[in-house]
Amino acid sequence: MDFLPVFPDLDGASVFITGGGSGIGASLTEAFLRQGSKVAFVQRSDATAFCDEMERKTGRRPLFLPCDITDIEALKAAIGQAAAAHGTVTVLVNNAANDQRHATLDVTEDYWNWSMAINLKAYFFAMQAVIPGMKAAGGGSIINFSSISYMMGNAGYAIYTSANSAINGMTRSLAREFGPDRIRINALAPGWVLTQKQKDMWVTPEGLSAHLDRQCLKETIEPEDIAGGCLFLASRASRMMTGQALVIDGGVVVTG
């Protein structure tokens, strides 16, 4: 991550990340730690080994709070714990998501509710939990991860793409509502990032080749490629940017 710029205002900032111990989230945690931020993150699986690794690599240890983000009361409690440990959360990164593939005609109401709980509902209630503190602190930054999947009209995971699209609408509405409180709320839409999960479950040579053909930049996107945009949105370098969707996809959606 030597290529990332330094944003001095993130030094000492209290940052809360959902799903911050694996995939893109792990790169975000590392990037904020390297800025000097105080990072807390939640995920379901044990992240002790990851925290050990981050302490070795950055000299700073993130605060891991085990949590299923679909349990809203547990999510709110984790945010409270992070604020107690690091001070008022002034940067929230709603990153955790699940892009599980599904056939539309097989979807049950329970499956719909489960997917929306992860991919949309948790975002809203995480924001609701941090906004009062941000207002009292004089402002803050919220970054809601979406995806270019809904822009491309991809089939095979309609609930996920529906949530992606809804995240943008929610981001815009809340940016308008809380702009007077100096709370900035933006979306970040990655392209196909080659996390280990993607490699294990979805990447095929043919599929990857076809996707690279659609990218203007003919390189695969790695998790650390997303970190710079997230840091920018979190910092005061983007202080007059809100209600926007920043796309980091190698140039897919500009070409159709």
TrEMBL record:
| Gene3D superfamilies to which the protein is assigned, alphabetical | NAD(P)-binding Rossmann-like Domain
Transmembrane ranges, per UniProt, are none
Q: Name one Pfam family in it.
A: adh_short_C2
Q: What is the lineage of its organism?
A: Bacteria, Pseudomonadati, Pseudomonadota, Alphaproteobacteria, Hyphomicrobiales
The entry sums up its family as follows: Belongs to the short-chain dehydrogenases/reductases (SDR) family.
Can the keyword Protein biosynthesis be found in this entry's annotation?
no
Q: Which residues form the Ketoreductase domain?
A: 13-192
* CDD domains found in the cross-reference section: SDR_c
One GO term in the molecular function aspect is: oxidoreductase activity
SUPFAM superfamilies this protein is in? NAD(P)-binding Rossmann-fold domains
Entry keywords, A to Z: Oxidoreductase
Q: What is this protein called?
A: SDR family oxidoreductase
